[in-house]
Design a protein that fits this description.
Blueprint lengths: L1 H4 L3 E3 L2 E2 L13 E3 L2 E3 L6 E6 L28 E2 L8 E7 L2 H8 L7 E8 L4 H9 L2 E2 L2 E2 L4 E7 L3 E8 L6 H8 L4 E9 L2 E2 L8 E3 L2 H7 L1
Length: 213
């Protein structure tokens, strides 16, 4: 606002002094004679390995997910959480609006995980998890469990939920008597991890960004 009122901003060569001047997005805008453009957003998918903390900066973390990206991507931030022992799809971006949309429960952005627990997850326990479990005084939202497989010692299944509470799946499993031995996020919304190698990253395509939005 101070920039505008001080007469330093021009739109299509015309001086603008009113902060409420409408902008459609295709105008040429200059500040002190220097042309400025819209902020450029970047979207990166990382296949996070276990052992890395999901944070931009933590002096207490031995390794963070930012260590897996080039220094030119330090302006990006992780979207949501994957705890240190978990693996899989992690989105990083500087698009704050999209990050909010993907992490806030009111937008119902589904996230699917591959989970392995010790012992047999019975139908009764599955139903209990799907219906919602009270964790730290608050009940989890309903979720979906499918492709359940028991091999005699461990149970593997896929779980889809639209919340992202801290260590939520591990605590849900613990509440019905199971310890999670493996946890990997496979998808966020319509974004799929697929065959991206562990520890590697790639930029999203325009089509993928469109699907997320």
């Amino acid at each position: 606002m101070d920039l505008i009122q001080s007469g330093r901003v021009m739109v299509n060569g015309r001086l603008v002094e009113e902060p409420s001047t409408p902008i459609e997005g295709h105008e040429e805008i200059t500040v002190d004679g220097q042309k400025i453009g819209p902020k450029e957003y970047s979207y990166v998918m990382l296949n996070k390995p276990a052992g890395y903390t999901t944070t931009k900066d933590d002096v207490h973390a031995e390794k963070t997910v930012m260590d897996l990206l080039p220094s030119t991507m330090r302006h990006l931030a992780p979207v949501g959480r994957l705890d240190r022992d978990s693996e899989g799809l992690l989105l990083l971006t500087n698009d704050g609006d999209l990050a909010f949309q993907l992490t806030h429960p009111k937008f119902h952005a589904d996230k699917t995980y591959l989970v392995r627990v010790k012992g047999e997850l019975t139908q009764a326990k599955q139903s209990k998890m799907e219906g919602g479990i009270v964790i730290e005084g608050k009940k989890t939202a309903p979720c979906r469990i499918k492709e359940l497989k028991y091999n005699g010692t461990d149970t593997e299944f896929k779980i889809t939920l639209n919340e992202g509470r801290k260590r939520q799946i591990r605590m849900m499993a613990k509440s019905v008597g199971h310890y999670v031995t493996y946890l990997c996020r496979l998808s966020m919304g319509q974004l799929q991890l697929r065959d991206l190698p562990k520890g590697q990253w790639r930029a999203l395509t325009k089509q993928e960004v469109g699907l997320l939005k």
